Amino acid sequence: MTTKTAVKTSKPLTVGEPVAAPRGVRERRVRLGQLGLAVLLVAVGGLAAAAALAAVSTTHAYLAVARPVAVGTALTAADLVTVEVTTAPGLAPIPASEVSTVVGKRAAVALVAGSLLTRAALTDTPMTGPGQVQVGIGLKPSQLPAPRLQPGDRLILVATASPTATVPGAQTTTAAEPARYDATVVSTTALGADGNIVVHVAVATRDAPTVASLAAQGRIAVILAPAN
Known about the structure:
The protein is α+β, with helices and mostly antiparallel strands. It contains three helices and nine strands; from the N terminus they run H-E-E-H-E-E-E-E-E-E-H-E. Strands 5-8-7-6-9 form a five-stranded antiparallel β-sheet. Strands 1-2 form a two-stranded antiparallel sheet. Strand 7 and strand 8 form a beta hairpin.
């Protein structure tokens, strides 16, 4: 007699049937230490951003140049203006509170209107050298050797006297040659709307009395010496 044995077969999968998720997947745990570090980094970044914003937005009062100032010219209150600016790395402008220490000092370089004033641009050194004194000469516009004289310009002062006249201390080689004196421009001062100016020059101490006398008599012609 033949015995039949039943064979079990697995259930065929149907296309599109959902597959059950595997069991035993470990759940992720949030570490408190990492969370705290993240919060700390966010806080530090916020504080740094706030500090940077405060540094950029904070302004201070500094001195700036109100109008062009030539080299060697003594500064006046009219040459300065107060501006509110933020501090910049590498720049050391003079605070507006120190204006009284600036007025009277001379420009060591040509100052441009609108630029911040720094201590390096100022000097206490007089334009007169050893053995020199300063003399003022009043000139009409037609007597100026150039449209604008700058401090440091070298001049030749010529005495407009008679060719036979003898001027004490004159640098002459013949009786017919007019007396001449070397001078250096220290500063200039305008006098009113007529265009007349006073040119302050440095001359040798021995020549100062004669130059002052000739200037008072209006007997000086001015020549701009060639640059070296």
